[in-house]
Amino acid sequence: MSASEARVALNAGNSQFAKEIARMSIRTLLKFFSLILLFGYGAVASAADAGYRLSSGDVIKVNVFGEPDLSFAEIRLNDAGTFSYPFVGEVQAKGKTTGEIEKLLTLKLKDGYLVDPRVSVSVINYREFYISGEVKLPGGYPYQPGLTLDRAIALAGGLSERASTKRMTIIRGADSTRKPEKATLDTLVNPGDTINIEQGFF
């Protein structure tokens, strides 16, 4: 092989190597951004859990460090907003935050069962929100932290041709008076809320 042929082969090899590095870099960047999105969502969900008041239909996870018999991947709150737990019995969770449930279980387990229980409670599935009126697919849909009315409408297939974005109301699931509030596309939706989209005047 001549010197010129060797240089051509070397350049071709370098070019192929550079392409492989570029492909690896793209894959690495994609993984990096995926992790950012994953942890970002986790942070939003954790922040939402902190002030969120539990109610019937929510599904929680209870973990007691080092105690598999006291740890449960899924516990669904019944219609009364309660759940049954070993050594504790019926736990009233409705209206409480996950932090309050953690403290309650910790105190109960300390009372003659465990010396230093480390309890964590998190929401893994929120109860549904409901949307009716002028949307293509009215009904109940799974709640997602940070959900806006605009996104809720998208989940319900979008607006019908007769819908009016100026005539939208929302009834809060946590509001015992069930009084409709005027809503906009940017209004935040909570678990258990009921949205209604009315017709416009044409």
UniProtKB/TrEMBL annotation:
<dbReference type="InterPro" id="IPR003715">
    <property type="entry name" value="Poly_export_N"/>
</dbReference>
<feature type="domain" description="Polysaccharide export protein N-terminal">
    <location>
        <begin position="47"/>
        <end position="123"/>
    </location>
</feature>
<dbReference type="InterPro" id="IPR019554">
    <property type="entry name" value="Soluble_ligand-bd"/>
</dbReference>
<keyword id="KW-0732">Signal</keyword>
<dbReference type="InterPro" id="IPR049712">
    <property type="entry name" value="Poly_export"/>
</dbReference>
<feature type="domain" description="Soluble ligand binding">
    <location>
        <begin position="129"/>
        <end position="173"/>
    </location>
</feature>
<dbReference type="GO" id="GO:0015159">
    <property type="term" value="F:polysaccharide transmembrane transporter activity"/>
</dbReference>
<dbReference type="Pfam" id="PF10531">
    <property type="entry name" value="SLBB"/>
</dbReference>
<protein>
    <submittedName>
        <fullName>Polysaccharide export outer membrane protein</fullName>
    </submittedName>
</protein>
<dbReference type="Pfam" id="PF02563">
    <property type="entry name" value="Poly_export"/>
</dbReference>
